[in-house]
Amino acid sequence: xxxxxxxxxxxxxxxxxxxxxxxxxxxxxxxxxxxxxxxEPETLYLGDLDDLHRQLARFGPNHFLMGKLxxxxxxxxxxxxxxxxxxxxxxxxDRIRHDRRNVFKVDAELLVEANYAWWxxxxxxxxxxxxxxxxxxxxxxxxxxxxVRRRRELLDRWNWLARLRLNRxxxxxxxxxxxxxxxxxxxxxxxxxxxxxxxxxRHRIFRMEDVFDPSGDAYRELLAFAVHDETxxxxxxxxxxxxxxxxxxxxxxxxxxxxxxxxxVADICGETAQRLGYPARRTAS
Length: 285
What we know:
Largest sheet: 5 strands, parallel
Helix content: 40-55%
Shape: globular
């Protein structure tokens, strides 16, 4: 019997990373009954041998070795290849079905995957699940860039434009400067997610700044949407208490951009930022 379409409720939480996806991927299962939640299930933590063995047993060694190396396995590869037009919609769906067969085949009423790599793939969910919702968590572009810079390993790994091969746009706005590269990455991801949400009532965008605001209003709204309005399944006291926990924090480092850098970010991200309710341009303090 085929796993698809998934009969359980499915919630995908995505964004550009550094926006709270890990918090929800690790926390939702704690305070939502009959919920299985994961954060980036394909990530290998080489320093944790128990986790390494579990992941290799779950996905198979070929998934992490030749599959990812050749770009045929792994959600991030599917997102990039689909965005670039290297694989068709049907090919992408088949690859996701293959890779997610051991992620979604879980005995739970609600399945949650928090993973930035869904950023270009949310429009394919109607072929995977009968009852799904998508939550995008957006973040101010300047704050996001600073957060990535403070996690230096992310800056090195997230050379998004080089990996997406958008350097074919070099005559227009290519620059090797990491601030410019990250600004384009933020704009590409958030632009794709804005477009996807505009075409799907089951896809909502929340701003990180609102979700973690002390009032808790947007946080409660996000949780209600994530559980498909089955709010009785939420242990609200535990959920509200967890809101103050810090997971995957930034490291010490840059806390501001120079005005020339802010202007570069504004030129690239300004229009998309405004659509999300952020200022198009910021002034150095």
